[in-house]
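B., you asked whether I could sanity-check this one before it goes into the benchmark set. Here's the sequence:
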Amino acid sequence: MTLTNAPAIVTQFSTQLAACASWSTGTAGHWYPSADPGIATLHAVLASTNEDRTRYAEGANAIPSGTLKAAVYTPLSIGEAEALGRSLIDELLAQQTGLMFTGGNAQLSADPGAAKQADGNTLQFACHP
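And here's what the prediction gave me:
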């Protein structure tokens, strides 16, 4: 597991994902910007996309916005992977500390990645702080 040169928002996302009861399996790892292709256990590759900053008043700091994404590689079945995605979104949206998420979505990925080759599935989910 490595978060090499990850921006602070990705590091915080990793912390909040690790705090989710659905994710706390003891073997789940978080990676940025990519994962070792030989890993077949549950892990996520994290990313920050659509970063934007909006200034609402002269002299005030800009307010950041964007999307945090995770590609989750899991040895779970399709149904279990979908349930994991829904649970993770619900748990992240319910957290009262850290990044406050306003929405999120989860779906199976069209790109199977290394997990599919190891008889697993790939799930993508996004959260919007």
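One thing to flag: The first helix runs from residue 8 to 18. Otherwise nothing jumped out at me.
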